[in-house]
Amino acid sequence: MALLITDECINCDVCEPECPNDAIYMGAEIYEIDPNKCTECVGHFDEPQCVAICPVECIPLNPAWVESKEQLMAKYERLTAGQAPK
Length: 86
Fold this sequence. Notes:
By secondary structure, the protein is an alpha+beta fold. The chain has one domain (about 15-80): Alpha-Beta Plaits. The chain is built from two helices and two strands; from the N terminus they run E-E-H-H. It has a two-stranded antiparallel sheet. It is globular. Keywords: 4Fe-4S, Electron transport, Iron, Iron-sulfur, Metal-binding, Repeat, Transport. This is YfhL family 4Fe-4S dicluster ferredoxin.
C-alpha cells in the first residue's frame, strides 16, 4: 500500500525531506503523498521514513491503494531505473 497523510497533519515540514522518492508534497492545506511514487520506502529503508519521523502519527496505510511488497519493490525499481546508486 502507499501511505496517506491525514488531516491531523500539522504541516511541521519534517516528512517531506525524508522521502527518498519525492512522493511527499505540500497540498492545498496539508502535505500529501503521491501514491504513484510512494513505495513505503521499500528498496530504500526497512521502514517508512515519514512514519518514523512524524510527531503526530498521521501517516497510515492508504486503504484505497493496496500493493504487495513485490509490487512496491517493482515500483521502486521503476522509479530508480537509470539513477546512479546513492
